[in-house]
Amino acid sequence: MTTTTTAGTTKVYRVYIKATPQAIWDAITKPEWTRKYGYQGLADFDLRPGGRYRALAIPEHREAGMPEVPVEGEVIEVDPPLRLVQTWRPTWLDEPATRLTYEIAERGNGVTSLTVTHELAGAPQTLAQVNGEVESAGGGWPEVLSDLKSLLETGSSLYA
């Protein structure tokens, strides 16, 4: 996986996955998939411009004190299965919403790239968390994307 920082507040992560663009799209947008990797939150998308996005905490996380909706946002642009742009805001932080872009591109030989661009201006706490710099917050995007790759390529999460 490659990580690029632009102007300090934009993070770009790219991972190559042996999967179809549709499989990656589904893994990002469907709760039956998002439950299996990363922070295991259930994605709740209204996949249209202006539609709502919510990540719903699983019972184990709610019991540990996580809010029922730890992340919320609004869908800005949708082009299945190639591009999704949305706002993204952790509800427990007093920071503005950030902008998150998923770009999915078929590369040939069954390989697809997933590029995640997270624009985090004005949200330093969110930036630290998604970059994996806050120990209690997990590994951020690098860990989530590694887990997604493992799940799609092997059928198992890194932590299964």
UniProtKB/TrEMBL annotation:
Pfam families, per the entry: AHSA1
Activator of Hsp90 ATPase homologue 1/2-like C-terminal domain residues: 18-153
InterPro entries per the UniProt record, alphabetical: ASHA1/2-like_C, START-like_dom_sf
Cross-referenced CDD domains: SRPBCC_CalC_Aha1-like_GntR-HTH
Family: Belongs to the AHA1 family.
Descriptive protein name: Uncharacterized conserved protein YndB, AHSA1/START domain
